[in-house]
Amino acid sequence: MRGKSRTAGKRLAVRSAGIARLAAFGLLLSLGACASSGPDALYGLNAPRGFETSGRAGGRQILVPEPSALQALGTNSIAVVDAGPVYTYFPKAAWSDTLPKVVQAKLIETLENTGRLRGVGRPGESLLIDYQLQTELRAFELRIDGQDRAVVEIMARLVNDRNGQTRASRVFRAEVPASGTGVAQAVQAMGAASDRVLAELAAWVVGSV
């Protein structure tokens, strides 16, 4: 009985330590958020260029709607995710717009940077569309659940705009180690992971249409 009690006690201590770490991190973020009504810094993403694509330039025009996302990623807050998953956010820092809009803008720019499409646009821009690029943000965060790293995951689906049939679909994911848990290190790692995903996604689109 004593052996079992000691084992249970150790497990409880480990669990309590993990909960305490998460609570302390959450308290730090909450205190920072209460100290100011708005962010002190706004962060953006880059649009990759100069990456390899297959196929030749064509006359296709692509519509890029705003990506869908759960509420946890559908804001301008910069997400930090611990095991669970449990979402918290950096205080006094935010994306330059809601994250889906930032990703939409940079995805359009990345597709334009390929130089292999006739046109790329948003809904309402009166383009004669060949394909819709429907996307879903599944991860865009700093993970602190054992190894500090940025994780970006986007599901993409190419849909023929004339008959509604799916031409192709794929999930794009990248993980990049973070040099620290501060907002600057987190955004740098998320930017690197985003670059990989956007470049691969754009090359896939060009090769699929």
TrEMBL record:
Give the highest taxon in the source lineage.
Bacteria
Which residues does the UniProt record annotate as the domain ABC-type transport auxiliary lipoprotein component? Answer: 43-202
PROSITE patterns from the xrefs?
PROKAR_LIPOPROTEIN
Kindly indicate whether the keyword Signal belongs to this entry. yes
* Keywords noted in UniProt: Signal
Annotated InterPro entries: ABC_trans_aux
Signal peptide as annotated in the record: 1-35
Q: Please indicate if the UniProt record lists Signal as a keyword.
A: yes
* Designated name of the protein: Membrane integrity-associated transporter subunit PqiC
Q: Provide the organism lineage as a comma list.
A: Bacteria, Pseudomonadati, Pseudomonadota, Alphaproteobacteria, Hyphomicrobiales
